[in-house]
UniProtKB/TrEMBL annotation:
This is DNA polymerase epsilon subunit 4. The gene is LOC111148085. It is found in: Nucleus. One of its GO terms (molecular function) is DNA binding. Residues 1-34 are annotated as: Disordered. GO terms for biological process: DNA-templated DNA replication. Its main location: nucleus. The lineage of its organism: Eukaryota, Metazoa, Chordata, Craniata, Vertebrata.
Length: 123
């Protein structure tokens, strides 16, 4: 959003087609106690160091890996929850994850994996 000339009030910027452009995401504000990552970075770093092919991993790389893992878990969980809702349930079951994996091409690399998964109730 930009300020209208001389008025001091914000106005929406227009895109190339004359339509209002989507608002730009704002940088997170510094809130005491706020974390940039919900996963413990020390645990992510330990997992990265467990790989014999990795010799060095900078703090930025660890943070990016943690954030990517968060986004991946969030995405697959949302897709699995949609499958649970279609079955009129609030509890995620293994079959919901399996259905989400089958339905979304980006999850094809997870097909044919046998990973134990407990049922999770979403309130």
């Amino acid at each position: 959003m930009a300020a209208a000339a001389g008025s001091g009030t914000p106005r929406e910027e227009e895109g190339p087609s004359g339509e209002a452009a989507a608002p730009q995401p704002q940088a997170p504000t510094s809130v005491p106690g706020a974390r940039l990552s919900r996963l413990p970075l020390a645990r992510v770093k330990a997992l990265v160091k467990a790989d014999p092919d990795v010799t060095l991993a900078g703090q930025e790389a660890i943070f990016i890996l943690a954030r990517a893992a968060e986004l991946f878990v969030e995405t697959i969980a949302k897709d699995a929850y949609c499958c649970a809702q279609q079955g009129k349930r609030k509890t995620l079951q293994r079959r919901d994850l399996d259905n989400a994996i089958e339905a979304v091409d980006e999850f094809a690399f997870l097909e044919d994996l046998s990973i134990p998964f407990p049922d999770i109730t979403v309130s």
